[in-house]
Write a structure and sequence with these properties.
There is one protein chain. With 404 residues, the protein is an alpha+beta fold. The protein is built from 9 helices and 28 strands. It has helices at residues 26-29, 123-129, 133-143, 153-158, 166-204, 253-257, 316-325, 344-348, 357-395; strands at residues 2-4, 9-12, 15-18, 22-25, 30-32, 46-50, 55-56, 61-62, 65-68, 76-80, 85-88, 97-99, 107-110, 113-118, 160-163, 219-222, 227-229, 241-246, 249-252, 270-273, 278-280, 283-284, 291-293, 300-303, 308-311, 340-341, 351-354, 400-402. The strands form 10 sheets. The chain has a 4-stranded antiparallel beta sheet with strand order 5-14-11-12. A hairpin with a 4-residue loop joins strand 7 and strand 8. Helix 2 crosses helix 5, helix 5 (166-204) packs antiparallel against helix 9 and helix 7 (316-325) packs across helix 9 (357-395). The longest helix has 39 residues, at 166-204. The protein is elongated, with a radius of gyration of 27 Å. 28% of the residues are buried. The model has no long low-confidence stretch (mean pLDDT 90).
Length: 404
């Protein structure tokens, strides 16, 4: 239950806070980097080490590595206790923050973190405030114009936060923590569904498991039996949208970059890609030749490094999934050393065991259903995060008050 903000208010950045709240510096309510290992620490001292890459701000998980002081990274110095807040001071805008909720024994963090030990406020409230727009604006002011996106312990001590009475701090932290729990539970369900989809792919795309109604041996064929290259270049003066490849598939380059990065098409090599045609990254440093389908419903232009092809026989969605599943295997058909190149002609020569078109379609439908289920859960996560951001905006500024 909430009530409106009190009539007596105080200014705080671009908003106001209730009159019974206090604006405090971090150093007023917490110890910053209270304890550190010294150079005289025993060389045999063993500890669990937290590096900057070990903190996942999406679900607040922490991965540690066991270290011996003699061989540990030189940045392994910050002593961490239970209930401490870890705040990444390198690119803090990326929100590499975590609250230690386990019994922390022999836990050491990188000096790339500030270790915050609350003493005059609720540590859960302080932790939640690190994700607020109020702290983001302070990070921006500290980092703007800097050549290196980092702040130091002195900067952390001078950060400001609005502090409500302690019971209200706990109530706000509890409510926002419940939202985190709901989000994490949904993410755990996503992880389970992704593992199930991976299992389905490993079994259905290899023929280890067959769908009901299908039998017989898969036939070994060359991909040229299924695919046909499409070699259309843009006509002079054409107004096709330039497309780019992203993790989620092809998208307009103007959406990806915020503007159209290619301004002189006559000087660049492009391929035309109609709707529902396939393309792939033909040059790779890691041997993973990512395949994408043009699902945008428009004819567009793609870099000349992305060959375009269509399916002359078979199910297009199955072939797309199949090529991505076996993309590591395709490296043996490529040429090059530091950078592998997979030409369209080389792709056509690839040998694979493939089912009939009818079974291809059935397999694709099962995997698409699994993927749709995952995407719906991911959309739910994003909606929950948006809901939490809205709650933070009103609760951490006092625009809405919690009675108890």
């Amino acid at each position: 239950m909430t009530t409106d903000i009190k009539t007596t208010t105080k200014p705080f950045y671009n908003t106001t806070i209730p009159g019974d709240w206090e604006v405090q510096h971090f150093e007023d309510v917490a110890d910053i980097d209270k304890e550190s290992l010294s150079g005289s620490t025993s060389k045999d001292y063993e500890f669990d080490y937290i590096s900057l890459s070990d903190v996942d701000s999406e679900d607040f998980k922490i991965e540690t590595t066991r270290q011996i002081f003699a061989n540990a990274p030189s940045r392994a110095r910050r002593i961490v206790h239970n209930r401490d807040v870890l705040m990444s001071t390198v690119r803090p805008n990326l929100q590499g923050f975590s609250l230690i909720n386990d019994d922390a024994k022999d836990l050491i963090a990188s000096t790339g973190f500030a270790v915050i030990t609350a003493k005059k406020c609720c540590n859960e409230f302080l932790f939640q405030y690190l994700f607020s727009s109020g702290i983001s604006r302070q990070f921006y002011q500290l980092l703007v114009g800097s050549n290196y996106p980092a702040i130091n312990s002195s900067d952390v001590r001078k950060l400001k936060l609005p502090i409500p009475p302690l019971p209200e701090q706990r109530a706000i932290a509890h409510l926002l923590g419940l939202m985190d729990t709901i989000i994490n539970q949904n993410n755990q369900l996503i992880a389970q569904k992704e593992l199930r989809k991976k299992w389905l792919m490993q079994n259905l795309l290899t023929g280890k498991k067959r769908l009901k109604g299908f039998g017989g041996e898969w036939k070994e064929v060359k991909l040229e039996y299924f695919i046909e290259d499409y070699n259309e270049k843009p006509a002079e003066g054409c107004n096709y949208e330039v497309l780019t490849s992203a993790k989620t598939g092809l998208m307009k380059q103007s959406d990806y970059y915020g503007n159209n990065r290619i301004t002189n098409r006559e000087d660049a090599d492009y391929n035309v890609i109609p709707p529902d045609y396939l393309t792939y990254r033909s040059r790779s440093d890691d041997g993973l030749f990512t395949f994408n389908k043009n699902t945008l419903g428009i004819t567009g232009l793609i870099s000349g490094y992305y060959p375009v092809f269509t399916i002359k026989y078979g199910d297009i969605d199955f072939i797309l999934m199949y090529c991505n599943f076996y993309r590591q295997k395709l490296t043996k058909y490529s040429i090059g050393t530091s950078q592998l190149v997979l030409s369209m002609n080389a792709l056509k020569t690839a040998h694979f065991n493939l089912p009939t078109k009818e079974e291809q379609t059935a397999i694709a439908q099962v995997l698409q259903a699994a993927d749709k289920e995952i995407q719906l859960l991911k959309s739910k996560t994003e909606k929950l995060r948006e809901q939490k951001r809205g709650m933070m905006q009103v609760l951490l500024t006092g625009k809405k008050r919690l009675n108890n």
